[in-house]
Specification:
By secondary structure, this protein is α/β, with parallel strands linked by helices. It has helices at about 15-30, 40-50, 70-80, 105-135, 155-175, 195-200, 205-215, 225-235, and strands at about 10, 30-35, 60, 90, 100, 135-140, 155, 180-185, 245-250. The protein has one domain: NAD(P)-binding Rossmann-like Domain (Rossmann fold), CATH 3.40.50. The protein is about 45% helix and about 15% strand. The strands form two sheets. The chain has a seven-stranded parallel beta sheet with strand order 3-2-1-4-6-8-9, sandwiched between helices. Helix 1 (about 15-30) crosses helix 8, helix 3 packs parallel to helix 4 and helix 4 (about 105-135) packs parallel to helix 5.
Amino acid sequence: MGRLSGRFIAVTGAAQGIGRAIAADFRAEGADLFLIDLDAGMLSATVADLRALPGGAIHQAEADISDGARIATVFAEAAKAAGRALDGLVNNAGVNVFHAPLETSDAEWRRAFAINLDGAWACARAVLPGMIARKHGVILNIASTHAFTIIPGTFPYPVAKHALLGLTKSLALEHAAGGIRVNAIAPGYVATQKVIDWWATHPDPEAAKAGTMALHPQGRIATPEEIARAAVFMISDECPFMTAACLTIDGGLSVRQHA
């Protein structure tokens, strides 16, 4: 039996990167899945790839997590189709919004919070009633080392990620006595398409990549699969006394005083 056999777990931002890796690992560990992404085409391709492998049921929905009404609808539809409530939720979807503070428009400020914070709350709000009723459930928020460190020029992204960590701790304490755990993972640099695209914005992408690697004590950055393995542990029952916690996965970057 897999570590997640019998579980029904939702993953947002599941079409690519960390979300896709998490979905693949959860399926390999026996979970039934509800996968959500804004990009319907990419999500369908991911679901097709996963269904080609052995595993349980996969439900999917194209949705903007910042649309609270839409999120409530798709979660209700998924639970009805599966004939059961969700056991777990991974709030992975997010967006990089990087500016200097006084160059941040109201629209960009709102976009950072609508997706990185409001969307996570909309999804948590959709699954909590079922978890409360069954006195069991796990919510895992994919935060970032931006949730406790600051890189100049990345405003207001770290503000939203700090808030996501606050949401994690608040929900954890509110629902701890009811058998629900709420935790976070804080990845540092991960080899996703977003990071590759960011390197490509530099005059010398290979030099930018080398500079990123040099920041890290191990001389490399994480793979999405390394984040996914930690997510399996934290969404499973292998850490039943862990709640209101944030697991940092950055190869030691955030504790390194000088690059």
